[in-house]
Amino acid sequence: MNEDILGVIWSFDLHHGWMGGYGIVLTTDRVVGSRKNPLIDYCSTYLGPNSRATDEERAKATKIAGGLIENKEFELQKNSILKLLYRAPGIFSRGHITFNATSGDIELLISNLQSGSLVYTLKGLLPSLVAFAPERLYDEKTGVLVRTIIANTGKFPK
Fold this sequence. Notes:
alpha+beta, 25% helix
């Protein structure tokens, strides 16, 4: 498989199921999720088009991606994903990302805004999701494509 990594996120701010601490790898062809923290190290790195990641950040993210892929809990091919729904976290409420796929839905919860590291997590996560599937990523509150919101406001949905 010849694919490029678009983003690597491992954070205690992502949750799959009841337990916090989850990682995803977004590539040009698929998304992989894993609870296992491969290096006991935080990572939220966007590596797609116009990335400003340093060589050191890219090397770290690539290494973490390998560990997440090796210990994957789920894998969805891009062409099997019908829609991605993003709901921004609030002060008291969690956000989430839902992958609506032909095989069923997978939901990842996002910590509320009281988490001190959430801004860093979203900084890598949101551009990675947009690069992964710009034509399928919708803001759940408005039903509008996230790329349209960004084009009109210059910001990610809140």
